[in-house]
Amino acid sequence: MAIPFPKRKVSRAVALEELAILEQTYPNAVTALQYGNPFELLIAVILSAQCTDARVNLTTPHLFAQYPDAESLARADQADVERIIKSCGFFRAKAKNIIAAAQGLVAEHDGAVPGDRAALEALPGVGRKTANVVLSVVFAEAAFAVDTHVFRVSHRLGLTLATTPRGVEEDVTKLVPREKWRHAHHWLILHGREICKAPIPLCARCPVVMCPSRAIVARAAKEKLSLRAATMSSRARRGTLVSR
Description:
By secondary structure, the protein is mainly alpha-helical.
């Protein structure tokens, strides 16, 4: 059952109240990716595309044991990297990207991860979301990353109607003080993982009681029950006719 997003944004006052509740609910929310240094986080974020953080965390220890820094990964055999990261999905493209990113780090930054957005996004496999994660987590910069959880939860809360991650980023950062941008995307991610799940959110457990999607979810559930009852009734009638 697909739950449609609200068709209108909530008022600014409601949006601020929703975000305040999330901040209070997830005060210590941080990235779930496990890393020991900026290089490891950068590679982990690239691997996390269309893959769970839990799966990435199972994969990276083996990868970093073999290739602990940019210099070693830059010289890696792609087939070997593919073998290690295969469970992360899209492993051929990801292996190519992380090797090329490591080569870029070595060639342009002496193997270190740059704290500059333009330099980060110039690396293969690094888009705005990956750069925002690295900037916010490693360098404590004001950056807001939009992944699938942030996109979904922001829409369900009525914070945005944007159809692109960049649009969602722009809408939500207008509501959050700049110094909290790097924390806010973690509130939304954790809420998406624990409560506001895809495809069906756990509204009964949600602390954001003013969320506009509550009514949408309740209506969808009612329609599903009605359809189920109609289907069962139709089957019962057909069974009665056959038995005659």
